[in-house]
Amino acid sequence: MCGIVGYIGKNQAAPILLEGLSKLEYRGYDSAGIAVYNNNELEVAKSKGKLAVLSEKIDGGKKLGGNMGIGHTRWATHGEPSDVNAHPHLSQSGRFAVVHNGIIENYISLKKKLESKGFEFISETDTEVIAHLFEYYYKGDIMDTMIKVINRVEGSYALGVLCVDYPDQFIAVRKASPMIVGLGDEENFIASDVTAILKHTRDIYYLEDNEIVVLKKDSVKVYNTDKEEVKKEKFTVDWDVSAAEKGGYEHFMMKEIEEQPKAIRDTISPRIKDGKIVLDDISLTEEDIKNINKIYIVACGSAYHVGVVGKYVIEKMCRIPVEVQVASEFRYCDPIVGKDDLVIVISQSGETADTKAALEEAKARGARVLSIVNVVGSAIAKASDDVIYTWAGPEIAVATTKAYSTQLTVIYLIAAYMADKLGKISKEEYADFIKEIESLPDKVAEILKSKEDVQYLASKFYNCHSIFFIGRNLDYAVSLEGSLKLKEISYIHSEAYAAGELKHGTISLIEDGTLVVALATGKNLFDKTVSNVKEVKARGAVVMGVTTEEHEHMDDVADYTVKIPATHEMLLPSLTVIPLQLFGYYVASLKGCDIDKPRNLAKSVTVE
Ligand code: F6R
User: How far is the CA of 372 from the centre of ligand 1 (A)?
Assistant: First the structure.
């Protein structure tokens, strides 16, 4: 996730900005830059790659004079990692320099408007729009300009802005993207998280949405969009640096679990406009969709589990046959795939060796490749015909959570988009589906509110030697992910089974006290799974049922029940998976496992 730091004070800004950015490196980034006010102009230095490259370029900051500046580490969203796409961005005349975290959803229309007024864009970023907008609206008052700009942009932002006409102050604002203000002694700061400034101060203001802050060397004033001053409460941070990196969480995994409502919202909201799914990112036409013979979904691990969900959802909604395969098998199975087939490749990192090789195999056979990727400009993204990015931000914990969840939402968008183009969904069903997709972030947040209930269950079962996850159809697909989450971080043996398949052998492993996590969320198959619950209970299993608020009957058969909100049948995996992620996390935590870095695993598997 991008990082911001800004400084004004008694010291030279550039070294402080570099040092602050180094504290944000843990968030993941692919380029970095700083801008300072020096000798009546704005000087900018930026580089693709590690912060060390930037630091070397400007001799640890010594080459850039001045006591005020803004800095940024970028995690590419719009436009690949490059020097020119790195922040800060300058407005056309160089009067303004801007750093930005977040996503400007209406940047395409704003860009068109600005281009028609003669503005020339040099980067592919959404942020450059903001820099030019400042110049476009500027009539000599930076506060008025800031208000006009934020009234015009849609989406999420944390902005730090320098203006050549204001040598002794800079201005910042945030909406739906974090930013704090650090209060020092003859120096003040902004930062996307406290880690960046902890060395200098522990006194901070938290900014609310659309509060505008004006920072001078010895004053900080916060205003609302009516230009009225807002009295802020000062907080004193008592975290140590490592807790601060994790936003106060003990592990990145829990931080990322909690980030899911935002990650899902960021992924879906730019793609739903006026009740319609808009996939601007892809060139697949209605004609192309109508001509698809078969869809393959190819991926590894959790991304493969998203594919299993995808098979059920796309087949059900689009009536196109879907085959889902793990990439390491696909690449060597002489796949029957050709020019009339669409291959959907899913990867968080965009670098997984087997997935990339499978993609190349598919392309060599003439198939069209659409990838769902989290890392912009990654190898898989570059090699694909079309890419839909998940906007999960960097995932640090080895066990994926928010990437999995955002990949699911892209699958739903693709399924509904294609079903609409194919005429397989009525207007009412389409509208209902979109309404339900839009409600997912709130429903995920609601489940997270009762995470202590899952923690309690984990405390009952963390000593188990073997745990089974069962379910049918979509519940089976989520069982695969629940089981993987548990085993990879807690080292407890676990298997996921299609509930109806259990009695063909595996049920012999059930004995007194074996925990079976039974997922029964869908309406049609609820009774069928309940029958399987009865079968395992009759053989001594202890059952933890996961179902929706609509199914009271689960309480009668299961020993423990976890309830999730109801939603559209096809979207249930997004909710069902949340308690399972929490269960894996809490079990691993109780066992004292190294949750963020489980043994034998790497975040990005770039070898075969
Ligand atoms: C499990 C997990 C892995 C990845 C798999 C694919 O929690 O994270 O199973 O899903 O290694 O990685 P990507 O998505 O980067 O291709």
Answer: 13
* CB-CB contact of 98 with 131 (8 Å): yes
Separation CA 208–CA 112 (nearest Å) = 30
Band of residue 216 on the pLDDT scale cut at 50, 70, 90: very high
Q: What is the amino acid identity at position 408?
A: L
Residues whose CB is less than 8 angstroms from the CB of residue 452 and which lie 6 or more positions away in sequence, other chains included: none
Q: Is residue 271 part of a domain?
A: yes
Nearest atom, ligand 1, residue 401 CA: 7
Q: What is the pLDDT of residue 1?
A: 66
- In angstroms, the Cα distances linking 469 to 199, 284, 498, 501, 569 are 47, 37, 9, 12, 20
What is the arithmetic mean of pLDDT over 216-224?
98
Asked if 257 and 401 touch (Cβ cutoff 8 Å), the reply is: yes
Token couple for 486: 């548990």
> Does ligand 1 lie within 6 Å of residue 486's CB atom?
no
- The span from the CA of 483 to the CA of 302, in Å, is 10
Given a contact cutoff of 8 angstroms between Cβ atoms, the answer to whether 188 and 8 are in contact is yes
- What is the residue whose two structure tokens read 């500046």? 69
Token reading at 485: 């989450």
**8 A C-beta contact, residue 129 and residue 115:** no
**Catalytic residue status for 300:** no
| Residue 175 three-state SS | strand
Could you give the CA distance from residue 434 to residue 8 in angstroms, rounded to a whole number?
46
Residue 412 CA to residue 419 CA, distance in Å, equals 10
Q: Which of 214, 238, 262 is the last residue of a domain?
A: 238
Question: What tokens were used for 410?
Answer: 């892209």
Whether residue 414 contacts residue 313, with contact meaning beta carbons closer than 8 Å, is answered with no
pLDDT tens-digit profile of 377-427?
A: 888 998 999 999 999 988 889 999 999 999 999 999 999 999 999 999 999
The CATH number that applies at residue 72 is 3.60.20.10
Q: 205 with 298, same domain?
A: no
Domain residues for 275?
A: 247-446
Instruction: Kindly name the residue from 2, 300, 318, 593 that is annotated as catalytic.
Output: 2
